[in-house]
Known about the structure:
Layout: H1 28-43, H2 49-59, H3 64-74, E1 78-85, E2 88-95, H4 98-114, H5 120-132, H6 136-151, H7 172-185
Antiparallel strand pairs: 1-2
Helix pairs in contact: 1-2, 1-4, 2-5, 3-5, 4-5, 4-6
Amino acid sequence: MAQKNIYPKRVSRNLSVPEKGSGKTPTFCSNFYRLRSKFINILMKSGKKTKAHKIFSLGVMKAPIALIRAIENVKPVVEVIKKPLGRKIIEIPSLIKPLRQESLAIRWILEGVRKRSAPISNSLLSEVKDALSLMGYARKKRDLLHKKVEASRINVRFSRFPTSPKKVLASANDVTLHLIKVRHSNPYSRSGKDSGAA
Length: 198
């Protein structure tokens, strides 16, 4: 007689995570709670999550719409990646995935907060207000990155989705639109489903 297996089956930890391309659109509340947990985790130092949660609550917990709009204003769309070409290292424009866009925006906001001399909760609120009005440290970092993309726009021909030799890209916005258009038109690209709205 075969002996029964008394050990429970291993359950995957990712059962509650929806699959990519499942068609489920996140609601405002789910989006805010996800951004809140990400914000608190990046703000946390030395494992002091309760302290980070308190700072977040005193700063921007009462204005969730302002926080989401501030992150949207600060999110970069394109970046430059360094790639060796012969004996040189060139900077090639590349699209940023949506989750990395959020992470960069939150990091830049917190860098601006730590550069201020006021209490951290007040500084967080001030930095979010500046980001809403397209100002502040985080917005400057985004504009600086887009200027770097604009300066290296000639190197788009070395990317995975090159331009034609006769096509001239005038600005960072043109680089973004070109990369999005060619990525979505390429059926063999792995990240063809990624959306990189400008």
